[in-house]
Amino acid sequence: MDRLKVKFVVNGQPVDLNVKPSETLLETLRDRLELTGAKEGCGLGACGSCTVLLNGLPTRSCIVLTAELDDGDEVRTIEGLADGTKLDPIQESFMENGAIQCGFCTPGMVLTAKSLLDRNPKPSKEEIIRSMSSNLCRCTGYKKILESVEAVSSSKVSKS
Amino acid sequence: MIALKFEFRRPKDVEEAVRLYGEFQGEAAYLSGGTDLVPRMKLGLEKPKVVIDLKRISPLSTVEDQGEWIRIGALARIFDLKENETIKDYFPALKASLEATSCESLQMRGTIGGNLLQNSRCLFYNQSEFWRRSKGFCLKMGGKSCNAIPGANTCFANYCSDNAPALCTLSAEIEFSGPDGTRRLNLEELYTGRAEKPFKLYPGELLTAIFVPKKKSVGGYEKLRIRGAIDYPLLGVGFSYGNGTGKLTIGAVGPKPHSVEMKQFSQGAIQEAAETLLKQVRPVDNTVVNPEYRKRMVPVLAERLVNKVMEGVK
Ligand SMILES: Cc1cc2nc3c(=O)[nH]c(=O)nc-3n(C[C@H](O)[C@H](O)[C@H](O)COP(=O)(O)OP(=O)(O)OC[C@H]3O[C@@H](n4cnc5c(N)ncnc54)[C@H](O)[C@@H]3O)c2cc1C
Ligand code: SF4
Ligand code: FES
Ligand code: FES
User: Fold this and answer.
1) Does B29 contact chain A (CB < 8 Å)?
2) Model confidence over A26-84: pLDDT tens digits?
3) Largest Cα–Cα separation, chain A
């Protein structure tokens, strides 16, 4: 068996693909679906820069085989977060708080934060740190990233 | 990219999974969350002809109160288990080790069974095929000697499960289904003590569940690591106490956890227990920190942990 048929939903759009068993979700998203927001950092599950949401949960797409996805699984990438030109509050907050330097970790960071806030709109500082420490950033020192998440959780950003 | 050709199958039940394993004469790998297996395939440390995804076998992911035992399905995810009320209540050492495992998003994908059966790690082994080829293959790759301690004919790779030591303090048992049926053993009997091949597993055996005696305990887990998240343990110390007896277990130094029972909890008794454990391990220079430091941290973490736990008992 060379190729496998896989069906799932990406950013609200159903996709129907024939994939090699060894193809990773990151490769599917970047190379076939041209969704290049998820970045390949380490490729081994360590850095989190390839994070996408799989059924709402932050998932390292570089170590998931696309063949593992089931019909009805929902993948959300950074490209699917804004509503048209209206950014998600967490995206706004990253910009306003200067939480982006080189930007490589940013899509993964934003999606990890999005998932946390969807599951728990008012996380404590400890909860924010615990969630966000899944992702590595080489530039910011994390302070501004944490402040961006806190700003949304305490509704200091009222643009949603 | 995974530079490998393999088939991908999703059996509906355990029997079908085991049969598939046999069909491929053992050149097969079971897949749960894949957080250990997929990186290993990328590095060329694992080259299965078929990957057998267990996620559609739903009875493998449930947690069940069976009266005398809590049965934890092998495919229960780490993240879900740390939210489990019975685990919080009865097995605080396990709760603490689940929390200490890697980071939240890996916990959301990684399973407890995969955690126990993760392969061992060494700075000179968990590298790309290109890297390893240039260095020369070591014992764990079928070579002639160790690369961490040149000339040594023993492998010193570390078993890095955070949850195994905690489960040992709770006297957990594990259940396998294989071509010859089902067997159940103490978790501590799983290990060979040889890092090249750390588990006493027959080909095709599939871990179905972990059983923990349902007895209230107090306990905890201390982990030596550089960063507060993502890092594998450089040393893990677990402790559980109930009914006058305590059990102290260390992990991540060498190929298996080591335990000692404790009846007394004075400073002297803790130091003695740590000494007993230290005699059984030989940390070497195959992680990111000095082995002498890891050794010295055994009594430090043991004392910190046992004192903290026993403080709550008074
Ligand atoms: C960056 C990073 C950091 C990590 N840090 C830690 C850490 O701090 N502590 C820690 O303990 N672990 C750590 N891990 C390892 C791993 O994520 C966890 O151990 C996880 O729980 C493994 O579960 P899994 O379901 O993903 O395993 P898988 O990758 O699916 O499987 C692991 C192994 O077990 C076999 N297997 C899986 N399920 C079964 C079964 N039911 N029966 C028989 N064989 C089976 C597989 O073939 C494979 O060999 C880390 C991993 C990464 C990538
Ligand atoms: S301890 Fe030595 S033999 Fe074992 S994996 Fe590391 S380099 Fe190889
Ligand atoms: S690229 Fe996936 S975790 Fe680093
Ligand atoms: S902004 Fe550069 S890695 Fe985070």
Assistant:
1) no
2) 999 999 999 999 999 999 999 999 999 999 999 999 999 999 999 999 999 999 999 99
3) 54
Query: Which ligand has an atom closest to residue B104 CA?
Result: 1
For chain A, report the end-to-end CA distance as a whole number of angstroms: 48
- Neighbouring CB atoms inside 10 A of A74's CB total 15
Sign of CA dihedral A107, B83, B189, B13: negative
Q: Which among B247, B249, B245 has a CA at the least distance from the CA of B258?
A: B249
* Count of H-run helices and E-run strands, chain A: 5, 5
ipTM field? 0.96
How far apart are the C-alpha atoms of B166 and B176, rounded to whole Å?
A: 20
What is the phi/psi pair of residue B131, to 5°? -60, -50
SS3 call for A160: coil
Distance from C-alpha of B160 to C-alpha of B150, rounded to nearest angstrom: 23
The pick from B36, B116, B182 for probing ligand 1's pocket by mutation, whose C-beta has the most ligand atoms within 8 angstroms, reads B36
* B116/B70 Cα distance (integer angstroms): 17
